[in-house]
Amino acid sequence: MQLSAVGALPFLYSWQIEPFWVEFVERKLPIKNLPEELEGKILMQISDLHVGNRFDWNFLIESFQKAQDFNPEAAHEKRESVSR
Question: How do residues 15-28 score in pLDDT, each as one tens digit?
Fold first, then answer.
């Protein structure tokens, strides 16, 4: 019984926690020879979007609305697509 409970932990994490973990991190990224007009601008990278058949689209919409609060000049999506 204990072994099956331990085996269930990664499943529960990947099903109920990790897909709903939203984290906004601000970093200063010095770039050599960056044109002056881009200095101080905000670039947002969006990654690890978990979307599937049983997904709450409202959660995704709310996450993008929170991202808008940062008022980025540009956004980039880092995509790792998996389809079944």
Answer: 566 667 788 889 88
